[in-house]
Amino acid sequence: MRASGIIVSALLFLVSVRCLQAADQVLPKDTRAAWSVAFSAFTADSLPPEQRYLTFSVPLLIRDQLSGLASHSFSEEERVLYRSLVVKKELSPLYQSLQQLRRTRDETALAKPGSQAAADAEKALQAVLDRIQWLEALDSSRIEMADEKPIVFKEGTATGKLFDSPQYSPYQFAIQNDVDLLVGGTVRSVESYVLVDLWAFEPAREAVVFSFRDAASPEGIYASLDEAVKGLIGVILGKEWSSLSVVPDPPESVISIDGKSMGAGRVQSAYLAPGERIVRVTAPGYAEETRTVAIEPYGEQLITVSLVKQERPMLSIDSTPLGADVYLDSVWKGKTPLSLETPAVRSRIQLGLDGFYDLPISIGPGSSREISLVLTPDIGSRIKIQEKARDDFYFAFGFFALSLPIPLFCSSFANDYSAEYFRLTDPGAKADAALASNIFYYSYLGGTALSASLLGWMIVNLVRYIIASDRSTG
To answer: For the chain, which has fewer Cβ within 10 Å, the N-terminal or C-terminal residue?
Structure first.
């Protein structure tokens, strides 16, 4: 029993030492901020010169149709693979450094046995070996990784900023250019047809994750690429997707999907997650409509929503005196007394009658159904009142502008005579300089007070001018 207890204690000691060593190690991090996609020019195979443009135009067309994709979602399988890549990315330079570290350790030990340099070289080598051992035994599920990342379409130096066709394995090409998905292919001529072979290679899986083949005439090859685009969308997004288009009536209706406003008029929401979606359509003067739409994976669904127009109550408008012209949002509706349909949204009504000031009011769905207004007589010429207010404002502004140089010059002269006072040595001259400095200083204060008063007078006249100019609005 005593021997077994010693063995257990020794094992516990070794485990505790190992845990302390592991605690010193730092978990590797996923430092890639985005998920990158690259398109390479396609390879030509038995393609006549006049059709070689297809090696660039086909991948460019596909890339342009996919450029709106925003983020890539990682499946659980991908998360395992990408965590392993994080570990491999850190292990690779460590493996490469081992030979040099061993050489340095051996050379230092032979040249300076027992020295501090030899000890440091041994310590550096052991630290790398410990790190490698720890990483090789690491449970990669401990590494933090985002559920999704923004998609970046990398650009090369070939035509249309494509990458050149891979001259070696897609895996090595993707690793060298640091991309997460490489899309390439081949275009070949078969009799009077063009055959397109497309593939998408994911280096994390070390495999082709999507392939497409189709043949068509040179003129019709672009139309046949729709299926390739749909397949690539799912690969790049990393999840199933659907598309929903909503066509409203009236056309200016506002549409929201799952509570998110999509704008007014016909909208198309691509790359939605499959399942039930709540579509809400609203428009002023119409009854709101909400629908629950079930969308199948990779489906493209179109729905039309026709709103029912709501009956709006009548609004009675009267005025004293009668016969005033009524304008609704600048559109003439008739003369008072008048009945018109209550606007669906807040609107502006203006009453006008010769000899009276125009009277604007705001009405909407919540307004009273009977509105009676009293117009105010125009006791003077409106134009003359406005002109007088304008002239008064210009007059006040002119005086204010003319007053500004007074404090400026007086301040300058006061400073000059003050400096002169300290420069002079003759008592009489110093007294004269001090007197002049005080005179200009107090003149500066008076000029400042005058300018402030004139500024207030100008502001008052400006307000009067604005009121007079806006008198037509009541």
So the answer is: N
Domain end: 180, 204, 236, which one? Answer: 236
3-state secondary structure of 215: strand
The residue ranges of DSSP E strands in 106-180, in sequence order, are: 148-154
How far is it, in rounded angstroms, from Cα 186 to Cα 214?
11
**Count of CA atoms in the C-beta half-sphere (13 A) of 121:** 21
CB 332 within 8 A of CB 276: no
Residue 353: give its domain's CATH number: 2.60.40
Let me know whether 154 and 272 are in one domain: no
183-220 pLDDT, tens per residue? 999 999 888 889 999 999 999 999 999 999 998 888 88
- Three-point CA angle 78, 73, 267, nearest 5°: 155
**pTM for this model (two decimals):** 0.56
Give the 3-state secondary structure of residue 370: strand
Residue 455's SS3 state is: helix
Residue 10 lies in a domain: no
Residue at 370: amino acid letter: E
The answer to whether the beta carbons of residues 43 and 59 sit under 8 Å apart is no
321 is in which domain, residue-wise? 314-374
Calculate the alpha carbon distances from 296 to 94, 125, 167, 242, 269 in Å.
48, 58, 40, 7, 14
CA separation for the pair 102, 129 (Å, rounded): 11
Is cis: bond before 250, omega within 30 of 0? yes
Instruction: Give φ, ψ of 41 to 5 degrees.
Output: -60, 145
Residue 410 lies inside a defined structural domain of this protein:
yes
Q: How many domains does the chain have?
A: 4
Residue 203: Cβ within 10 Å count: 20
Separation CA 389–CA 397 (nearest Å) = 12
- The β-bridge relationship of strands 347-352 and 338-341 is unpaired
How many residues appear in the chain?
A: 474
Q: 132-175: per-residue pLDDT in tens?
A: 999 989 888 888 888 889 999 999 998 889 999 988 889 999 98
